[in-house]
Design a protein that fits this description.
Length: 70
């Protein structure tokens, strides 16, 4: 049973790290897209809203990771 818990912790840690990396890269791409808008103003507003959502998710992932593995 302890072995399964260790495997579950490893899987959770990998998922958290992949999610953190994906959201960080997506946020950087969105910031770059704001300065090079292709489709006009409305996509810039959508990009800003996605950046805010990504930052919130990054903070939530960080809190979960920090609480779980400290």
């Amino acid at each position: 049973m302890e072995r399964l818990r260790e495997i579950g912790d490893i899987i959770l840690r990998v998922i958290l790290i992949i999610g953190f990396v994906f959201l960080t890269v997506d946020t950087i791409a969105l910031i770059a897209d704001i300065f090079l808008p292709v489709f006009g103003f409305y996509t810039v507003v959508g990009d800003i809203l996605r950046i805010i959502a990504n930052v919130v998710l990054i903070i939530e992932l960080w809190i979960v990771y920090d609480d779980r593995y400290r």
